[in-house]
Write a structure and sequence with these properties.
Number of strands: 24
Strand content: 35-45%
Radius of gyration: 31 Å
Shape: elongated
Region (Disordered): 67-137
Number of helices: 4
CATH architecture of the largest domain: Sandwich
Amino acid sequence: MRIDLERALADVAATVDDDVTAERMSGQVRHMVTRVRRRRAVRHTAQGVASVGAVAVIGVAATSLGGGPQGGPGPSVPPATSSPDVTGPPVPAPALSCTSGVPDPTTGTPALELTAASEAERGRTTTVEGALRNTGGRDLDLEGWGMFELVAVAEDRVVGTMAGGGEESGSLPADGRLRPGDAAGLTTTTGFASCEDPATTLAPGEYTLVGRLLAELGGDVVEVVSEPLPFTVTGPEREVSALESERALESLLTVAEETDGPFPVCGTKPWLDDGMPALELDYVAGASDLVAPAGTAVPGGVTLKTTEGRYAIANASPLARVVLLRDGVVVGVPFLDPEDLVDVDLAAGETQPFDLMTTTALCGTGEGGTGEALPLPAGEYTAIAALDLMVKEIGGPGEEPDGSTYPYTAVSEPVQVTLP
């Protein structure tokens, strides 16, 4: 079936409610149709000069890209025929939307294969790679394609659509032929908006992504739909307002009390100056590493050392933690429940590296606290690294070895950091 490709694809773009997305699709329609027309002109001219040398063929093909010799219309294009093993409707369906049904995967050839990270944090964009693969036994004449569309599906219905925020790219075969087993690649980076009214970012949960591509194959526009790809959105169950986080932080600061007890304890004003500690931490990580997203493990972020020429034997947590303070109050403590311990056996002057876990959440909320995790408001904080140990023996020059076993927290010097 022969159709006006530009009109058909433009009609698809016009069905999109979002103006930005519709404009992007319309631009891709023009780009796709131009490439299709140019390829047809090149092929037709080359067929007409098949008996001429290779140099002559290249010269005529280059001329045909701009139309006729005097800038007029290029040569007419003979009718093209569809490959008999290509499936899908020749006329494109409306753009995928919240009201669309979930499209069925395409059977036959070509096939659209999706690849993406298995999960993404709520509100973040994700990059999805598509491969339009020739799964048949004969060459396909691939002349162009339209927009690479994605929807998020749950419980057999569309619950999220593309929200932009990224780039789209792809590459067609140089000769316009997609041979058996080969694939043409395309990539899009996008976020997902929910189908709720009003729309929000897609809530945390388990989904599948379904992709669709409109391809020009042998002169027909063919719809190719992928198999579902499992995808997980992580993060809090709902978006927390900045005002809610500010109020929670102020409430914690209001009730904070000074303490000389264990460190770190959420909502306390600790007393950390104990003269010369036997063990302490030195930062290797930079200030920007200390405010990485909550739960990030910074490799070798700190080193443990003894002081005053001491030696130490102990067991330690495998991870040190970044503890955040505001106005001297502990307001951010990563939740940590290690199953294994690390042996520490330091002679005088030796050090031992430890990975460092970050936090950007208000302590007392989320995992290890109550309710959902609340993000700490943007602003200035004091960061102190802390490592929990079980000391077995410590000794040094002129000291009697202390062989008693007791819990110990090694800390670093405080540094000032800024949460964005």
